[in-house]
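Reposting from the mailing list since nobody answered there.

I have sequence plus structure tokens for a pair of proteins and want to know whether others read the tokens the same way I do. The first protein:
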Amino acid sequence: MADGYARLTSKPQCVIVHVDVGTQGLGAAVHNASCGRAPVLIFAGLSPYTCEGEYRGSRTEYIHWIQDVPDQKQIVSQYCRYSGEIKCGRNVKQMIGRALQFATSAPAGPVYLLGAREVMEEDVEPYALEQAHWGSVGKAALPDDVVQEMAEALVGAKEPLLITGYCGRNHDAVTQLVLLADTVKGLRVLDSGGSDMSFPADHRSSLGLRYGIHEKIPTADVIIVADCDVPWIPTQCKPNPGTRIFHLDADPLKQQMPVFYIPAEARYKVDCSTAFKQLHTYISSHASLSETVSAYQDRWDALGQEHADRMATIRSLAQPGPDSTFNVSYLVSRIRHRVPADTIFAIEAVTLTAFVADQLSPSVPGTWLNCGGGGLGWSGGAALGIKLAAGPTKFVCQIVGDGTFLFSVPGSVYWISQRYNLPVLTIVLNNQGWNAPRRSLLLVHPEGEGSRASNEDLNIS
């Protein structure tokens, strides 16, 4: 829930868990919050460190010995932007303030604090901090010479392409990206589905949502990768060796990924909303560049026709079969038709995500939220958090695969929904098994023994 609330509002939320076992119980949720850039503060207790009453809060129960581990924060620290121990009560506010600075500074994400019972029992004189001194790190912009170089490269390109994944978390970034696409007529935008809708699907420059594979990647001569973890999968699809690539990201080195690289000629740690605005402003304010792009009306018209054809193909998939059966495209198209136009969708459709995205075609920032990570079961609690944040008048719809639905602990989800009056529409897509592991198998061994086995034989049904 905290993850979903934080993603929709960008306001940090707090989760309190019980010592080491409660921390372990968070499991994949911390991975998802990290990959999805959700600002969440996690606080956990720590087994008392005294045994004989030396301090108030000393050990009083059998379990205090069992739950005493060498380094509790190591359970989750590799997924967190910051982890630390509160060692005394007199600077507890400073510790929380520092943790929240990490949680809310780009790239946002989870942070972890822990403290033993002796510290929690400490008597402290009331004190206050100046909250203005504890804000997040300010937004970074592109250097002026880089703005010029990138603007000229975009305008001079025959097939410019921008690939993004997370910039939609900042709704203004979507606005600025639309202005950039309107300025550079012929620029195509591919959403890699990181977490938030990052470019409106009804814009003629939109290529929709795809995971690391698209026919326009190998043909592009200039590519901007913006706030994106996986712009392409080299074994499946990659740019031409001569393509100029620029990487703009809050975390261009992907510091929590041991292996990551793309053949970019330059990379910049920037706020993408600011960078997009710099680029379209520079192009519009320089006569030679604005005159060049104004002559690209044929490209603009071609994009319009290309987009219209793609949308027609998407509509053609949304048809019931002759025997009255229907596929996911038809189902989702009917859902889109029936729910309110401003519905917020929490999506965890895994192998069916691209079909869902095509039919929903989200165009309003903040109305499409995807997990962004690999920990199945995110959408149940996230949908409740989104509903709590959005309020009683906003309709929230969770679309989830059947296997993933089981991981969300639906019993707990629906108890919380009932207890706190958080109604959410849940759509379970039944594809009769966990198709993600089958797909992984076929990508490596398309003709192997497993390719001929049924879901039942593979124990994924």
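The second protein, same order (residues first, tokens after):
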Amino acid sequence: MVPMTKLLQIRFAGTELLTGLPEYRNGGLFVDTGFLTLKQSERERGIAAYMKNALVKGQPNMEVVPLFTPDDDVIVEWRAVTVGLLDDLLVDVNRQLGLQGVDKLSLAQMLEAGSWKGGRELAEVSRPNTKEPPIMILSDGTVF
């Protein structure tokens, strides 16, 4: 949207109603900081799935993290909670920065400079060899 807005002068109505993406950088931020944690039984199940998947040629086999399919309840819940937490985080960030009215950060601004970038950087520090998320999704690339 930003290129179309800036270069083509196209305006979009209702952008304040958009939600953040529940992708692994945003969701990973909440897991890597310890704000969200898996139940021990789910963590163990995910680790077992990772170990089994690691035996498949070409699959990750270092920096072990829980692995689930996209339709697993753990992933569905993680993604749903991430969307809600991003909205809450935006309010907190604007409040902490003392931003009000037209000066407030939009969700897109906070995602780009904050949660997405922070999630990526935490993944790099936490898992320097792979930079993978703290919870992996077994996917063909169509789910992010």
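Reply #1 (J.P.):
I read it the same way you do. The two ends are 20 Å apart (CA to CA).
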